[in-house]
Write a structure and sequence with these properties.
Strand content: 15-25%
Shape: extended
Helix content: 25-40%
Structural class: alpha+beta
Number of strands: 11
Number of domains: 3
Number of helices: 9
Radius of gyration: 23 Å
Largest sheet: 5 strands, antiparallel
Order of helices and strands: HHHEEHHHEEEEEEHEEHEH
Distance between the termini: 32 Å
Strand order of the largest sheet: 6-5-4-3-7
CATH class of the largest domain: Mainly Alpha
Length: 313
């Protein structure tokens, strides 16, 4: 990522996360990349605003109290945050989907977190969790997607561990035929060598890395094979019961059912298919979320937290 791109991402996150208008001085102090003289910083900021607005991102200008003619400040309301991409072809959408996965995690990189921390250090309340446009998920799906595409192109078998219908980790060896996106998820289909049958797999249910074999051009893809026409994918999921602090963890709440009002907290149920991804989401929200059940999920999170404690001793 270039320095300008990183600065634009960090500026966007800071303006989205802040709970009040940020002055230029606060922006220059908290966001890396604004360097040089005051005039240089001013020019950089004006160009950055123009770049963001050209993408359809509405930057709101205001002050603390209009009656006292306060210095102008800036923020982006999450509900107005959007990108104006115009008309897109199927190929454009596929490429943008790949790019979005590559940026997932980069948007909340160390530099971006630093901006939020600096805002808090100078007394500005901000909350990344209130931003509905960022997906706080730790994922290596970009690398996995590339591996599957390479294997399809070279007609090479792949090896990976996959969560079964019972959410058990099972080794799989597959000759991949095609990959496609459906319902916001990536799927790939191919011939399962052990089961001697066609199978479809959801990419985010792959546990760990996908390994490409050494025997290239070892199989042929059936002519005219269409993954979506042959789509048969298990949608079975597990249910977690969580205690969630009110007005927090919007990502988890999106498809959840509220079971009980606990005052400051709520008891909710959430369905999930990939334990690894779900654990990432729970851990992201730190002490705003507690796992009540299943015990296996609770134990996994405790184990990860214990390892983190050891690493930082």
């Amino acid at each position: 990522m270039s320095r300008k791109s990183e600065r634009l991402v960090n500026l966007t996150i800071a303006l989205l996360a802040t709970k009040r208008y940020l002055t230029k001085a606060e922006i220059f102090k908290s966001i890396e990349g604004y360097e040089g003289s005051d005039e240089s910083k001013e020019r950089m900021f004006e160009r950055d605003k123009d770049d963001l607005r050209s993408l359809g991102i509405d930057i709101e200008v205001g002050g603390f109290d209009p009656l006292f003619m306060d210095e102008a400040g800036y923020r982006i309301k999450p509900e107005t945050y959007r990108l104006d991409l115009g008309e897109l072809s199927g190929t454009d959408i596929a490429l943008l989907s790949l790019a979005a996965q590559a940026w997932n995690g980069q948007a909340l990189s160390e530099a971006a977190h630093s901006a939020i921390v600096k805002l808090k250090s100078i007394g500005i309340d901000s909350d990344v969790d209130s931003i509905p446009t960022l997906a706080p998920r730790v994922s290596s799906s970009t690398a996995e997607l590339t591996s599957v595409l390479d294997a399809i192109a070279t007609r090479t078998p792949i090896f990976f561990t996959y969560f079964s219908q019972d959410l058990e980790r099972l080794p799989r060896q597959v000759q991949p035929y095609a990959i496609a996106s459906k319902g916001g998820h990536w799927y790939f289909a191919g011939f399962d060598i052990e089961k001697a049958a066609m199978r479809t797999f959801r990419l985010d249910r792959v546990a760990g890395e996908i390994t490409i074999g050494t025997e290239t051009h070892s199989f042929e893809i059936p002519q005219g094979f269409d993954l979506l026409q042959n789509f048969e994918e298990d949608t079975r999921s597990s249910t977690a019961i969580l205690e969630v602090r009110k007005d927090k963890a919007f990502i988890l709440r999106k498809d959840a059912k509220v079971l009980k009002d606990l005052g400051e907290w709520e008891l909710i149920s959430v369905e999930y298919s990939n334990p690894n991804t779900f654990i990432d989401q729970v851990l992201w929200h730190m002490d705003d979320v507690f796992v009540v059940e299943p015990k296996e999920l609770q134990d996994s999170i405790i184990e990860i937290l214990e390892k983190l404690v050891v690493l930082h001793e």
